[in-house]
Automatic annotation (TrEMBL):
CDD domains: SDR_a5. This is NAD(P)-binding domain-containing protein. InterPro entries: NAD(P)-bd_dom (IPR016040), NAD(P)-bd_dom_sf (IPR036291). PANTHER family: FLAVIN REDUCTASE-RELATED (PTHR15020), OS06G0360300 PROTEIN (PTHR15020:SF11). Residues 48-202 form the NAD(P)-binding domain. Gene3D superfamilies: NAD(P)-binding Rossmann-like Domain (3.40.50.720). It comes from the Eukaryota.
Length: 232
């Protein structure tokens, strides 16, 4: 979404159920979480539109006026440019939100991270908070983008997962309100599921949810999980 060209656009359609007409734009669809989101959307009968590269000036065209919602699972790829996290995790997301505003796309799901507001939580000395901010202010960049979404008027769900694992789920999802969790991990499969379920549960609207998985946690429906989070 920054300074490069859109090189390919993939539109896939799948599924026999009522989601078949809903087209979802996935940013970061090539990523480890993004590709799981695409798989789960298709399995649930959504159409998926995936901008597989970049180009902020062409985001409006990429999202298009036929997308009903956007899921953003982008994240900077480590490199030598210390500004990359700020460009991707703040400006890239902001550009996507602005594209949605122009197009009238009124549903936005963002994969963010626990500890984005670590300083306000008294977690400024948390090693994860320090580590992720030393490399390009990553968590602060994500928090800036979150604040932009929350002021945008768009119906958002901001999902803040703990440390991401590629392994299949090994516990049930624990969902807490913003600025609550400061440790824990979760399977990318579960993060993708939460993102897709947020689309179909009105209880997820205008909410920030923090998620990890714990082996001893009871299993809850998504209706109950999202419903348990009170909007501030
Ligand atoms: N790793 C963790 O433990 C952890 C914990 C909490 C939250 N998170 C967050 O969760 C999200 C997903 O993480 P992940 O590890 O699944 O992601 P990932 O595998 O690193 O994938 C990142 C995605 O972002 C895309 N991207 C990078 N720079 C871009 C740019 N300038 N314009 C457009 N797209 C760009 C990548 O596209 P290309 O394939 O083209 O590079 C890729 O599709 C990220 O926001 C991450 O910060 C991660």
């Amino acid at each position: 979404m920054e300074e490069a060209e859109i090189t390919e656009e993939v539109v896939q359609q799948s599924g026999p159920n009522g989601n078949a007409k809903k087209k979802i734009f996935v940013a970061g669809a090539t990523g480890s979480t993004g590709k799981r989101i695409v798989e789960q959307l298709l399995a649930k009968g959504f159409q998926v539109k995936a901008d597989v590269t970049e180009g902020s000036e062409r985001l409006v065209d990429a999202v298009g006026d036929d997308s009903e919602a956007v899921i953003c699972a982008t994240g900077f790829r480590p490199g030598w440019d210390l500004f990359t996290p700020w460009k991707v995790d703040n400006f890239g997301t902001v550009n996507l939100v602005e594209a949605c505003r122009k197009l009238g796309v009124n549903r936005f799901i963002l994969i963010s991270s626990i500890l984005v507001n670590g300083a306000a939580m008294g977690q400024i000395l948390n090693p994860a908070y320090i580590f992720l901010n030393v490399f390009g202010l990553t968590l602060i960049a994500k928090l800036q983008a979150e604040q932009h979404i929350r002021k945008s008027g768009i119906n958002y769900t901001i999902i803040r997962p703990g440390g991401l694992r590629n392994e299949p789920p090994s516990g049930n999802i624990v969902m807490e309100p913003e600025d609550t969790l400061y440790e824990g991990t979760i399977s990318r499969d579960q993060v993708a599921e939460v993102a897709v379920e947020a689309l179909v549960h009105p209880e997820a609207s205008y909410k920030v949810v923090e998620i990890v998985a714990r082996a001893d946690a009871p299993k809850h429906s998504y209706e109950d999980l999202f419903g348990s989070i009170k909007q501030r």
